[in-house]
Amino acid sequence: MQLNTSRFGTLEINENDVYFFKYGVFGFENYKKFVFLNEEESMFSWLQSVDNPDLAFVIIRPIDFYYNYILDLDLPDANDLMIDDNSETEIFCIVVIPEDTSMMTGNLQGPIILNKSRMLGKQVISLNPEHKLKHFILDELKRKVELEKGDKAGEDNR
Amino acid sequence: MLVLTRKKNESIIIGDSVEIVVVDIKGDQIKIGINAPKNISVHRKEVYEEIQRENILAAQSNIKAGKIKELDQLFKIKKPDVDKH
Q: How would you classify residue A9: left for phi > 0, otherwise alpha for psi between -120 and 50, otherwise beta?
């Protein structure tokens, strides 16, 4: 299947690589099919809509910039995603990139879960009150680096 | 929409398994208790709306595919700063 995207030109997409989002993502409930596009040697990736070639989100793994990231998955979400003990899942968050890119934010309140084993995806709502709509990614990363340094104080002989 | 009048401590049952209790009423604020099975999600509506707006904002980010590497550069600039302390 070919997809003429505004950002990536023509993409050749294998039907098996399409994630099905039963509820779309918030604000784009009608678009239910997405492909995950990897950026080589980058912290970022893309979630490209298959139904709307102009719609793509920059995404990042929360564990890559947020200290001690843990998501407690709500049971209804786990059910929708058909997650079981053998599922290979990944968590991402959507990045908002303003004009001043250093002010980019990640949305930890509405993370995206992909169940790779079933090719299902869902944007869920985190029940952790510390997970906000806007986390400044560079600030969080700085905090993460500092705190992790503290965590392994003594081991680090740099 | 079905509209029901309830007093404090009165409740409504939805289906077989969801109970909504009026826990307290103070001025224009009503405290609502919800008893629902674990397989039903309960969220404040504003949370949905905020995430919707945030997604729309994210979709408007006009970053080109080839520009993503520049974002990674920001990380590399920031990291040495942290390490110097």
A: left
